Every structure is written in structure tokens, then in C-alpha cells.
Amino acid sequence: MIQNVQSAADLAPAYDLVVVGAGPAGLSAAIEASTHGLAVLLADENESPGGQIYRSVDRASDADLTRMGPDYAAGRRLIERFRSADLSYARRATVWSVGPADEETGDGAHALEVGISLGGIARPIAADRVILATGALERPFPFPGWTMPGVMAAGAAQILVKSSGLVPSGRTILAGTGPLLYLLASQLLRAGVSVTAVVDTTPVENCRLALPHLLSFATSPYALKGLKLLLDVHRRTRVIRGVTAIEAFGSGQFSALRVRRGKKSLHIQGDLLLLHQGIAPNLNLTLAAGCDYVWDERLAAFRPTVDVCGASSVPGVSIAGDAAGIVGAVASALQGELAGLTAALDLNRLGQGAYQQRRNQLSRELALALRGRTFIEHRFRPGKTFRVPEDDGTIACRCEEITVGKLREVAALGVPGPNQMKAFTRCGMGPCQGRLCGLTAVELLAQYRDVSPGEVGYYRLRPPIKPVTLGELAALPHTEIAIVAVAGFVERAADGAQGK
Amino acid sequence: MFRRLSDRKESSVSFTFNGVPTMASQGDSVAAALLAAGHCSTRRTPVSGAARGPYCMMGVCFECLVKIDGRPNRQGCMTTVVTGMRVETQDGAAMPGQEE
Ligand SMILES: Cc1cc2nc3c(=O)[nH]c(=O)nc-3n(C[C@H](O)[C@H](O)[C@H](O)COP(=O)(O)OP(=O)(O)OC[C@H]3O[C@@H](n4cnc5c(N)ncnc54)[C@H](O)[C@@H]3O)c2cc1C
Ligand code: FES
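Above: inputs. Below: predicted complex with flavin-adenine dinucleotide.
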């Protein structure tokens, strides 16, 4: 049975392994490691385990399971296995730093230290191994009007259905590209939502680019599912393809979408606009932990570099699932198992022979689960103009309201990377810490300098990766110097309010 | 803008939004409860005063920031509503990391 960690006081000072994220990757890593006798803590920000795909599945009714489909329902079994595993689980727990143990305050026995906030109290936890299974984020989708109320991420609508049984009540438009856009369209249609249109922004040339990978896709488990999904959505709503630009209109609230197809344009009235153009690895914690990363041209995103078992460039820190590259739920779970198994080997809870045997089996299953991904990546790669908007008035950084035009102005001054851009414009300096502007800023700069985004690099990310309040920091058994070193600032203002 | 599916049967929870008594379902996040109650714009930005509402619902965008029981800068989508909670809009107030 899992031990539910209710408050920071219930946390042990140290664990063999800390796993961050309770999606398929994190759950599988934690279960695997615990079966080999490791003392495991699994920390996750959400109310209940499951991550993105299996969100709230343990509370789901039969009607919910039918609505969301068999891939969602499959999460039930994983969560049942998790509930009967021998490990500690902290829900509503945010991990805001991972790094080498502090020489002064560390216990000397554990190599790593993890900063966790739980119920308003922050705690440093010592660990021998850390597995980051922090999943993916929806890509930024900047175009004129995307910041307006009534425009939301498609994932947000899916979260509202899964967690609260809330569905859009008015005319709903979905726009963008990617399998998840069609999955959501089909889920909403099944829930009786009035989906006015699916505005597909996939570049037309993608079909041609994906063609060489068709065979491996056709023989993968994705093929039949994907085909069914597309047919279902096409049958039940209007799908507009070959879209070259979109713009949202409304006075203070979304009311219409202008859709351009080459020279033609049409207006679609609606009450809610849902956006999606694929997902990208959630980099904040892995980068703040100091893990090396590369630009992945196919994903059009950065991903941390890991070996076949998920080991990152930072000793003791592994990355599994979508956090290391977009692989989907089944492969995420297998990567989690591999990382958990390897942690057990590293900590001498498993012999080499047994390890090799199980590792080989998992690797074979993983190769199978990954089949077809290359096709999907090419087929749904979002177009350049939707990644870096041409319209200078478009807001790139939602927090600081910095436009693409402003970024171009600063790029013209010859700034070498996004960190200098941030210093000039404040782009990426707001509370989202670049999560919704990072890729846009980097690709814009790369375009300007005519180099690969890999050469431009990403924001320098430092802990805490989420704002930590005064109350939480005060609870840390650290000197002020140590707090500044970890957090970059010390709060002095009244409770909750912040100041430098 | 959102309606509750009829096959969902959670018990209800009452909280206040800007002083007005509002109902939520057990397990709703603050942001979900506000959307369910018809509030899709829940703050104004500190820079231009533009209206914004929850965007990602998964703790990423910080568009859902509200004041909860007197504490500003709470992520509405990551906080579960409980009975008697006081939720207020945060108009133009500085967000974490923005103050000089
Ligand atoms: C919004 C969204 C919806 C999706 N829906 C589907 C779907 O319906 N079907 C499908 O096949 N695929 C879906 N995906 C793709 C999905 O990412 C993968 O299929 C799968 O969930 C990846 O598993 P994972 O374990 O790697 O990460 P995830 O399932 O994303 O789990 C990561 C977990 O880590 C937690 N976390 C992240 N950072 C921290 C931190 N610092 N501290 C504490 N906890 C943290 C997150 O809250 C989350 O619970 C979706 C992706 C997104 C972004
Ligand atoms: S809605 Fe994005 S952080 Fe809450």
C-alpha cells in the first residue's frame, strides 16, 4: 500500500529515489524501483495521480470512461498497481529544485537534494537518485488575439472534462494541428458539445514529408486508432484544411475567428476557441537541474540529452517519458520502468544478470511502442508561421505583454541569445518563466540570425522553477545566503506578497 | 461558457468570488469553479490592464492568478476549492517575479 504524505512534516529527510511527476512515466518508475526495495518518494503537483493522459481516471465514472475512450480507461490498471505499491506519494507537492547536495546542510550520505513545497511549506529532501518524469507542455501558439478570454489551450478543455465534468456550452472552435487536437474534438463531440469547426493548420507539405515513414506507421498500433479518430471527426463536424493564418476577434471576449487559406478568408463565429499545435518536453526542472539539452528539429523543440536508460548528463538524475522527448503514454511508462530498474541496479538492489534480462525485454517493448512516431512527428509538425508569427503586433510573451515586433527590433540589435533578449525586453521574465514564449523567442532569434535554434540555445533556468513564497522559504532550514543561492532572492514583504 | 455534464454527481461546495456566494463541485479547482460560474476573465494584466482568464489549466501559464483567502498570486487551476474559501480577482496587481 502506498503511504500518502499529507503534509511536509510527513516527509522523510531522505529517500533512495525521488520521482517527480505521477504520469505514466513517473508512476511506472516509482512502482518498478519500489519492487526492488528502494525507498521511493513520488511527488506530483496535482490532486490525484495520472499525469496528463490519466488525469482523474481513478474518480471517473463509466460514462466518463466511455466518453474519453479506451486509452484513458487503461490508466485505471496502472493506478491500481500504484496504489498497492510500497512507496510514499506526495500529491499537491511541487518540486522546485534538483541539484547536488549542499556541502554544509546536506547529510553527507546522499548525493542529491530536491526542493519540495507541500501545503505552503518548503523542504529540502536528500536523495541518492532522482527521476524526472515531468511530462510535456502544449506548445505556445501565438497569433493575433490568442491572449483574449474565451481563447484557451485545447488541453485545458480536456482537463476541465476529466477533472470537473465541465464541457463547453457554446459554439466551440478547435484550431491547430496534431493528434491531440483530433482526440479532443472527438471527445467533445461524444460529450455532446457543439463543435462548429476544426480549423486544421497543418502545413500541406507535411503529407509529402511524412510519406517515407508511412510503412512503419501503418504497421504500428497508432494507425488504426488514428484513422478511426480522423474519420469520426470528419463525419461529425466541419474540418477546414490548408489554413495559412488565423486571427481571433472579440471585444474583451472571443467572438469570431478569421481563417485564411491562401488568398481566401472566412469568418467563423464562436464562443470558445481551443488551441493546440503539439506538445514539447517540459524543460524547466531538467534545465534548472543543469541537464544538457539539444534542439530536436523534428519535434521543433529542445529536449534533454539522455542515454537509453534515461540517464541525463547530471550524475544520479534520469529523465523518463515526454519530459525527455515526445513518446506517448505507452512508451513513457516503459521508459519510466527502465529508469526505475536502472536506479535499482545503481543502488545494488539487483544483480547484473537479472537487470540485463529485464532491460532487454523492456527495450524491445519500447522499440515497438515507438514505432510510427517518426511519421506522426512529420505529419503534424506545426508550420513555421504558426511558430513564429509574421504579424508584428502579436503578443509573444503573455506575462509581460511583449510583442513579436519588439522581439524583432531587439533581434536586429544583434543580441546573441534569448537571455540577452530577456534582459532587453523582459520577454520570459514573468511568472511563467518562459514556458509560453521560450520556443517563440528562440526560433525568432534563430530565424533572424539564420542559424539553428540549437545554436541560439534556451533561457538559462534557475531554481525555483515555480515561485516560492515567504512562508515556504522561511520554513527552510537554510541560511539567508543559502536561500539566495537556491532561490535567487529572499522575500521580505508581508505574507504572500513578494519583493527583492 | 461551460456546463456540467449531467452524469457527474459530485456534491457541491460554496465559496465566495469577490464577495459573491458561488457554488462549485467537490474536487473543482478554483479556476474550473470560476469558469463553471461563467467567469472567463478572472484578472487584468499589470502591464496594460487587459482582461485575461485561465488558459492552460495545468499550472503552466499563470493566467489564472487570483487572491485566495487574502493571499495574492495563487494559481487558481492548481488550488482545489474548499467550503468558505474567499477568492478575489487580482486587477493589475504585480505577479510574482515582476516587482522591482
Ligand atoms: C495537456 C495535455 C493533455 C494530454 N492528453 C493526452 C491524451 O488525452 N492522450 C494521450 O495519448 N496523450 C495525451 N497527452 C500527451 C501526454 O503527455 C502523454 O501521453 C503522457 O501523459 C506522458 O506521460 P508522462 O508520464 O511523461 O508525463 P505526464 O503525464 O505529463 O505527467 C507529468 C506529471 O508531472 C507533474 N509535474 C511536472 N512538473 C512538476 C514539478 N515541478 N513538481 C511536481 N510535479 C510536476 C505534472 O503535473 C504531471 O502530473 C497530453 C499532453 C498534454 C500536455
Ligand atoms: S490556467 Fe494556466 S496556470 Fe492556471
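The first strand of chain B starts at residue 2 and ends at 4.
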